[in-house]
């Protein structure tokens, strides 16, 4: 197996081809899923190391099929729920054993404990209510350069939200970095083979990768700069995808020859999954928006968010978990109070 060559760039002569082959053969997708190994440098991205080659050869299909996005979402949803429940138990001795999973058929062991759990959940919902930060107060704080969100000084924010958000964002960043690399490889390959006028020569010029906890943007960049860079990447990739699709259509309709070289081209074209590329771009946009919402959750105007908006940030998911618990507790209380039971028996 020879290392890939991309856009006429020579492969690194220092690569030990035997070691590279062994690394490829020893690759284990399950073991690698949560390990960040791909690092961008200030130089253009070239497939000139074993790790980058392994990424393209072994992980591309998992990204292009949507499997990586699906697994990522499933992992962080479970992680957020588990950590939220763990916080309630450790901080307030929340009693989950008093809430049977089939609570409509089986009564709780104690209605008093249901009331206590309800008080705990509502306490944290009140603390995390974004309406606590009034618009006038935020404007005043911004003007005085003393901008501070009330919730940032609370126990639930410092002990739960900060930790969970940092962990989830790091997993998302890993996904974005690798997905951008795969997109770069795929679109550059199409541009090279079919001489498509697509500029994706140096994707690292548009992003700033650091060794900070949030590896997708450096801590010295403001959020608006980060979003502009992210949107610029997506816009360029989407335009290139459109150009690629248009050029491929022109090739298919404008050349009817069936020489061997054309047969090879036809085969390659049929294997290009343009929709998968578009889906991967959408995945990046979705996850990038998720991280953005986490930065503005307590200051944004939630009334302007579309009710059908599918993106929910980490903070929003924690709040949603608390709301689900509140609804369960209210249902249990209403269903199993003596008056409710008496009304039920009176209809029998």
UniProtKB/TrEMBL annotation:
User: What protein name is recorded for this chain?
Assistant: Uncharacterized protein
Organism encoding this protein: Tieghemostelium lacteum
């Amino acid at each position: 197996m020879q290392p890939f060559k991309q856009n006429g760039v020579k492969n690194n002569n220092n690569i030990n081809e035997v070691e590279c082959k062994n690394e490829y053969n020893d690759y284990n997708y399950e073991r690698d899923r949560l390990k960040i190994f791909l690092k961008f440098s200030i130089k253009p991205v070239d497939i000139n190391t074993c790790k980058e080659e392994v990424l393209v050869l072994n992980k591309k299909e998992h990204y292009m099929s949507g499997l990586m996005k699906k697994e990522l979402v499933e992992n962080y949803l479970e992680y957020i729920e588990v950590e939220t429940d763990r916080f309630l138990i450790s901080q307030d001795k929340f009693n989950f054993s008093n809430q049977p999973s089939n609570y409509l058929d089986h009564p709780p062991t104690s209605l008093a404990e249901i009331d206590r759990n309800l008080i705990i959940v509502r306490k944290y919902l009140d603390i995390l209510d974004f309406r606590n930060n009034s618009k006038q107060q935020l404007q005043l704080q911004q003007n005085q350069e003393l901008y501070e969100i009330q919730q940032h000084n609370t126990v639930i924010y410092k002990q739960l939200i900060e930790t969970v958000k940092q962990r989830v964002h790091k997993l998302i960043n890993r996904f974005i970095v690798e997905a951008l690399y795969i997109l770069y490889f795929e679109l550059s390959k199409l541009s090279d083979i079919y001489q498509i006028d697509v500029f994706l020569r140096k994707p690292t010029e548009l992003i700033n990768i650091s060794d900070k906890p949030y590896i997708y943007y450096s801590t010295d960049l403001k959020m608006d700069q980060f979003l502009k860079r992210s949107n610029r990447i997506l816009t360029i990739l989407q335009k290139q995808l459109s150009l690629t699709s248009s050029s491929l259509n022109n090739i298919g309709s404008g050349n009817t020859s069936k020489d061997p070289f054309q047969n090879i081209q036809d085969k390659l074209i049929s294997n290009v999954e343009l929709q998968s590329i578009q889906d991967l771009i959408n995945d990046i946009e979705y996850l990038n928006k998720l991280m953005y919402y986490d930065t503005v959750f307590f200051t944004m105007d939630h009334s302007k968010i579309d009710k059908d908006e599918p993106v929910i940030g980490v903070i929003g998911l924690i709040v949603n978990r608390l709301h689900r618990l509140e609804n369960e507790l209210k249902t249990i209380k209403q269903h199993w109070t003596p008056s409710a039971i008496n009304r039920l028996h009176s209809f029998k």
